Amino acid sequence: MASPYAWILYLHIGSVFVFFLLHGPSVAVSFAVRRTRDPTQLGFLVDLSKVWTRLSSIPLVLILITGIILGFMGNWWRQGWIWAALIVFLAIWIVMNLRGTRKLYGIRWAIGQEYLRGIRPTQGTGIVAGPVELDARARAIRPWELTTYAALLVAILLVLMVFKPF
Question: Where would I find the H helices in the chain?
Fold first, then answer.
């Protein structure tokens, strides 16, 4: 029979896979938004992203919780790699929020839908911005930049967790 540590580790790794699967549609939206300027299509895309981003937050929280539990079960908190991994994990969340989610809310604003002002949801006006504004908001999303940041930071996380260098 597997140890409790092995089961938590299994749940931790499984949560990573589920997160990537559930977050995939949001990634696809960031690429699709750059190619369309139709307000109806943009509305569909940002709504799709919002739903899948919310769903993917469940395994994301599980990744964090199981990682913390594993840190205690393995007595890893006295080593630097786990603190570095936690900082990288938070950096991924911050970068994706600022460079991804916030930019999609800019499109929501431009098509008159609910958007974020600071951290508070704000009711949209229902008025669609002009084509120049829509184009500027869509061009502000840089999917390859986000993908590159995510890939590099996830690679750093893997090195920290597999090799435990310090």
Answer: 4-33, 39-73, 80-96, 102-110, 131-139, 143-163
